[in-house]
Amino acid sequence: MSSKKGSIKVPTQPKDYDLQATGLVFKSYDNQIALEFNVEQQNGTPADLLGANLRLLMYIYDEVDGMITKEPIPFITKNLITESFLNGQVVYILPEAMKAYKGMVEAYVYIEYPDGSTSDNLGFTFRMKRSAIDGLAQDKADYFIADFQQLLDGVKQEATDAVNEVLAKVEAVSKNVSSAQNDLTILEDRIDQTNQQIGELGQLKRMYSNSIDFGGKGSSLSDFLDAPYYLSKVPLQENIANTAVQFPISSSKYTLYSAKMQEPFVVGNTYTITLEGTKPSTQVFRVYGQAVEDYNYGSMEPVRGLVNTWSLTFTPSKVSQDYPTLLQIIQQPDATIGACTINWLKIEKGETRTPNISQFKYFGEGLKDSDNPNDYSWDITPEYAEKSLNNTVSLTEPQTVLGLKNFSDGIQIAGDRVVGENEHVVYTLDASNSKSFIDGYATFIKHGKEVIVNGTVKFKKTYPFGTKLEDVLPDEFVAKIVHGMLTGPSGTSSVSKAMYVRKDLGTIITNSEFAANEWFTFHGNYWVGEE
């Protein structure tokens, strides 16, 4: 147990740190002096030193009779104590021989990792000084009382010290046990995090868009933020702004927008406001509740990837009691006000901005969380399909739906053939006709312009991610507009895997990795009609 301990942070960033003066001073009369190293990762969190070795290179500038010499100090391995591997805490007890020196100590820290890599991390200095008591001569014994009582007290003290030393060792053992328990808790937390991440792999990720024409126009979320896509990973959120306000607004006034929202601001709730508009370069759009400084919620910033679009996320700490629903947009500074426009405005709950549209037409699903829309399989949203139907056929008013009666070619409506309730075509892949499956079945049931798929198959060989199977579907089962996604669990595990029927070609592509003899149970449905 060290009585004096100097704490030193050891960074791991790839920077050239100058020799750092720590200001630490140890004296010859100090007992059990030590350096405590706290090794940090580049993000500031404690480094994991499990299996790693910390090395020290030290030189001392010793001063004797006015002469200064530089001597190396041997590194003693047994003096190195790792207090916590996972928290990056290492203690080095300075050798007793160092107390004979007086002067500056120059030290360098090196780390050897279990994978064989090494790093040069830090250089620092501290000082050794001789205590005044060491200079007392023998003839100055009158400073010390050496009578019998003092001797007796000394014997008692030695006994007390012996007991304290035993207690200190017990305390040190208890500390080591506690540290080991803390490390075990950290490891258990990491295992839980890993298991959670594994579980998330089986959950399909979603993306939304108003257009799915991504050929050659980009491969990232930021490439499709504007019309006609409005690409987003978040479902549309409600616009709680006043619906009676008419846009666009053109004004050179100090207050550009002032209206009551559909519900009041709530202290502690988070809101995101977005607008499309223009302003002089000298001005800023500032968001207020009531137009006094207590209800100044901040300045709007440009939205990256969108032109003339501004946004602000804020959490009110105060709400006006007189005007709790009031939302105002003001241009500042007032000394340089100029012509501004607001084409539209949306305020929504939460910290995420969503597009100012009534609905998304398409949604995409994929196994990995990607910003690339091409990594998803796309389909029409139920909301858009329902709205399109409602716009065509009235559900409440009497209506004549014109059609063509053609008994030779079946009943038709506006040129499209009406399918009977039980009319269908079936195509099955199994071991007798498949070049990809050695057991099981994959059944494709075509009803009208939709294909319903169900199957359990055993793969003939290993198929990596993105590989084309050897089977090709008949023309009437070829997916149109978007790929036909087939998903389900693999083997006895609950992890979801997928493959899909490629649009316009009829080939089946793996969207996961499959091993030889692996069983895969799946289902899905897709569109085979024209757009």
What does this structure look like?
- With 531 residues, the protein is mostly beta strands.
- It contains 2 helices and 31 strands.
- The protein has helices at 148-201, 382-392, and strands at 4-10, 20-27, 33-39, 53-64, 67-73, 80-84, 89-93, 103-112, 118-129, 205-209, 249-251, 255-260, 271-278, 284-288, 296-299, 301-302, 309-314, 326-332, 340-349, 362-366, 377-380, 412-413, 416-417, 425-430, 437-447, 450-459, 468-472, 484-489, 496-501, 507-510, 519-527.
- A 5-stranded mixed beta sheet has the order 2-9-8-4-5, with no helix packed on it. It has a 5-stranded antiparallel beta sheet with strand order 11-19-13-17-16, with no helix packed on it. Strands 1-3-7-6 form a 4-stranded mixed beta sheet.
- A hairpin with a 4-residue loop joins strand 6 and strand 7.
- The longest helix has 54 residues, at 148-201.
- It is flat and about 115 Å long.
- The chain starts with a strand and ends with a strand.
- The model is unreliable at 137-149 and 403-407 (pLDDT under 50).
Structural class: mainly beta
How confident is the prediction overall: mean pLDDT? 83
Q: Overall 3D geometry? A: flat
- Radius of gyration, Cα only, in angstroms? 38 Å
